[in-house]
TrEMBL record, chains A, B, C, D:
Residues 10-368 form the FMN hydroxy acid dehydrogenase domain. SUPFAM superfamilies: FMN-linked oxidoreductases (SSF51395). Gene3D superfamilies: Aldolase class I. Its cofactor is FMN. It comes from Croceibacterium selenioxidans. Belongs to the FMN-dependent alpha-hydroxy acid dehydrogenase family. Keywords: Flavoprotein, FMN, Oxidoreductase. This is Alpha-hydroxy-acid oxidizing protein. Transmembrane segments: none annotated. It comes from the Bacteria. Coiled coil: none annotated.
Length: 370, 370, 370, 370
């Protein structure tokens, strides 16, 4: 139950496309916060590449095919959904709007969209569950203490989350140069973690690397994925995979799905764009294994391209935060509606009546001669 | 008979090339209108690609071949024309000049150019016919009500149009971000359509997509092309094809010709440049099937490249509107003259005496090493 | 004998490289004249490509090879030259300096450089011959009247020119957009042509193309090259060839050499860079046929790359005019000296003791990953 | 013994990455000196290419691999080092900081980093030896007089240097256009050379090239490498090799290692980026021959990419001078620490526990579609 009423801002004039929320956010957000949100790790090469890779993929229209009666339904975890867009786990949403995850979860429910609550959310997973619709998943970061990780999973199960997304690509994270220059200070306390004891300081032998031997000691490995899969009955998705070998390895270990992602350029700077990597991942896992994609989606055309490249569905992170910043719950719901319309327009003009048709569409390079 | 005299503006100083009309139009047009004209759908990726693709194609000169006695004649619909340039169907020309289609049609007649009147013209097709020369075609958009479509075709036949261009690539259209930001409001009433009843509101089942099931319900399909071909005795050209499979399909259905076009980037944003797509289309329809191209032509060198890529002729849309805005009928006629001269100069320097020689010319990539 | 003393300007401070003359010329020249000099035909795509193509070619250094005792000698028309740089035919040099061709010819003589006098020179070929050194060639444009062409050739032979360069790539020429916008008006009377009668106006049949049937009527063809080769005993070089087929054709017709050139981007805009075209031309004419290159050379490294690509020697046009504008005869001589030093430095660092070694050097693409 | 105390500046606020030292140096350094430091030979094409080539290489993350317990140790000259980063020989360090090589050598010692003293150092090699740690190598330029070269080698051996790096890529050097325009005047007297007689002026035969026959007379050749290898018992590394043939030749001549380098773009302008060249060099010398790389490293990710490309270790030049300029010895030490952290983060996120794993990592192109 959300005790404070959701603030339903007006949708501002001048929002005609999902990308307009990014443009407006740049105008209305605190510059340091915007720098933090927009910036990728380090110099941000991968964050920029995510956008460029989508821009440089083209679709050959096929306007005379019958699409009337088409739809955008997809099935994930055995559940049919009306559209293939999810709200990616985005932490600390109180930075973007006073309603924080209350707003984005409400927007998800209003638009038949799965909401994925972050371990790093401003609200505890229980508080999110109280306001979110039934289609909610929980995103997990492995904690240094295995008991703590287990406890968080139990809490998510108890709170009625129906899917578990484990993010594996950021055991360490280099800050964004852009955010540092803007002077942004990220929040330190996390609602989901505040009742657990602090992990003990790590002892290093002389000469041992603080990073490789210290910070990475508790980093998740394939073995931890096995452990987690046995710990929970929830469908388990692994987020942050770009290498075909790793994807194949995870298939053999029985996970429910994989999210091809470079964490929006916030993990390894220099990683390729997700949409550049997905074809090889799709080829390595076979046609039917569940794959999602995030990183760089700013329009419904990008959703189309992600699916044509091999994804079954997509997650949107930054757009969610931009829309939330600009217009609260209403903004997020509107952004999802615009994404859907843009994707459907792309389907309509390229002769795709269903997402299966989209998957069968060949993308072509744009700007190759430049 | 046009009752108000055609305003024959002076050709402004500083117009030395067809592209100069684009440059001058940017200076003299209302900024919002210019934004509308120049912008492509959505972010305008394809509109930009159209220009870049032409710029990145090169021609190897062959100066010592004899071209004297050459010409630029071509045959379309069994009719010989002195040059391969047509005026593309451009709607709402009253936006650009008080004389509207009167001016462009007069310019076409004065330059032995085929004028293609748009369904969306500011003047009714009958009014255009009264002022246009005999070489006039009509461009058709399928209407939601088949009877209305049939009636428009009958009117075009009665009014003496000698060709029918059916545009198939914009059953729906996403507006240009640029035009939206500039605050442009497009005209709503169309002279050709004002006497027909408004189409009834469309009923959707719960959960049906407004786009895929609503707007696209009346979108033309291959079957509609068959119907149209039977309805009319006019040569039927299909405009808005980029995919080789669709082109081949249309050949089997007996259309008279195909116009390879992405609607100047105003249809599916993300579509490849027409000139990048034409070689594959040409290969799929064989050497002799009539093909035209539009989208992105700003110079006679571009006309040359379109033909070298596989087109028999080209249509110019934006350049027409630019010249019309800058200098009315005289501007359009002058623009066509400049295009012809530029194309002939390109032929002269590359050893092409005829358009057949142009078709045999290999294009090379420019800027590939960059 | 030049009756007015050559003005030997000081070499201005800040000239450390041949390219510095281009930079300084932009500062000191009349802007309209500079626009004319720098601009290529039409939008200038090829002029820009000439520079980009050189910039995007790389050389792998080989510093430990012995180059001591090396030299830059080459043999052209059976005559040994100390270096492979010539002054390209540049017309109307009075535009650039009061001394006009007197200055550039003197600079050529002072630096053991062949001077090629233009048909369009400010001074008559006889006046140039009076001030130039013995190493002078004459550049010929075919004239509409064959008798006039013959007469010019006779005059050049009589005046002691030892080579004939016939330029074939500009029977017509589209002006530079940039020069037009800058308002440049080119000179109309040419010293070499002033005593000939004006060619009669050309009659065109109705509907005939002014360009293809009019202007191109007198354009040189392969047959005219045959005629010219029989008319003169001078070594005959054809300038303005980029297509391998045309090069091979000229070899069979017995010309002395070919100059691979796009006229510095002043002929067919859209032509590839000379340095991009030369490898295919070299392959088509065999290893030993004399080839030169011009278009885009701004440094000794460019000279190196042209030779590595397949040229025996190069011509410099714009750099000549820049240096002439900035510092008269002394500037041109200094520019040649800098080009030589830069070329020799490139040879030294890449292990080339002779131009034959340069010809054997493989170029690599730079910026390919960008 | 350094008689004046090392100035241990504070690390300035705003340094979060090694690249920040470059950014800050641009703000705090004398503009002419910065132009000199940043500029490459001539127009600086290669200097720019060095940065672009690293930026356009990507790494596919592999986050679920176990890296805990990993390290960055490597073995060079039979000696184990904790990390693969060395301080490149940078001359005239008094330009950058009053402490000159005292500061950088101290920083090297404090961070277990090999310091390579330059022939062109501000301090004599004996003075550097007095303040540097035991892990110090000496960089040699061949001198015109073989006796002088021998004497310098003897002095380096006597002063306890444990490795010899002979730089071969700059027997001549074209100055940077950027530095010339900024008016930078390089120092002329060198501490290591001031007690030797000036080399006699070189006699040239008439017509001999000043560069090829004069300056290059004393340039080192493969034969000189043989001579040097016999002269000294120190491990001998050759710096400035990019061509696979030259690398193979040096392997057969028994040198200890090769440094793939284009001298930071300060030798042959137009040379490819070191990181673009290293794969072919590695292939030509086999998997186990010692290779290092310099030129263009601005981050730990770049170090990772250099090693993935085939290097065993890297040298940093400009970053050293930037950090020295900004914050003296402390800055240099801090810069090395940041480079190590950035490299280890890259290893952690790409599943590399050791440098051998890095060497086995495939790099992918970024921005290829642009």
């Amino acid at each position: 139950m959300n005790e404070q009423p959701l603030s339903l801002h007006e949708i501002p004039a001048g929002v005609h496309s999902a990308a307009d929320y990014a443009r407006l956010a740049a105008e209305v957000m605190d510059p340091a916060l915007f720098a933090y949100l927009e910036g990728g790790s380090g110099p941000g090469r991968t964050a920029a590449e995510n956008l460029a890779a989508f821009a440089n993929l083209g679709v050959v229209p096929q306007p005379l095919r019958r699409v009337s009666g088409g739809h955008t339904r997809c099935v994930l975890n055995g559940q049919q959904r009306p559209h293939p867009i999810m709200l990616a786990p985005v932490g600390s949403q109180a930075l973007f709007h006073a309603d924080a995850e209350r707003a984005s979860a409400a927007a998800a429910q209003a638009t038949d969209t799965c909401f994925i609550a972050s371990t790093m959310a401003s609200l505890s997973l229980e508080d999110v569950a109280a306001v979110a619709g039934p289609d909610r998943w929980f995103q997990l970061y492995f904690q240094p203490d295995r008991q703590v990780t287990r406890d968080i999973v139990r809490r998510a199960e108890t709170a009625g989350y129906t899917g578990l997304v484990v993010t594996v690509d950021t055991p360490i994270q280099l800050p964004s140069h852009r955010a540092l220059e803007a002077g942004f200070v990220p929040p330190s306390e996390m609602a989901n973690l505040r009742d657990y004891p602090k992990p003990p300081a790590q002892d290093l032998e002389p000469g041992e690397s603080e990073i490789l031997c210290g910070m990475m000691r508790g980093a998740p490995t394939f073995g931890d994925i096995d452990w987690l899969a046995q710990e929970t009955g929830l469908p388990l998705w692994v987020k942050g995979i770009l290498h075909p070998e790793d994807a194949r390895e995870l298939v053999t270990r029985g996970v429910s799905g994989i999210i091809v992602s470079n964490h929006g350029g916030r993990a390894l700077d220099g990683a390729p764009a997700s949409v550049s990597a997905i074809s090889a991942v799709r080829a390595s896992v076979g046609d039917r294994f569940p794959l999602m994609l995030d990183s760089g989606i700013r329009s419904g055309a990008d959703v189309f391209k992600a699916i044509a490249g091999g994804a079954d569905a997509v997650l949107v992170g930054r757009l969610q935060a931009y829309a939330l910043s600009v217009a609260g719950a209403l903004g997020v719901a509107h952004m999802i509606k615009l994404l859907r319309q843009e994707m459907e327009a792309c389907m309509a003009l390229s002769g795709c009546a269903t997402l299966a048709d989209v998957r069968d569409t060949d993308l072509v390079p744009l700007g190759a001669g430049r």
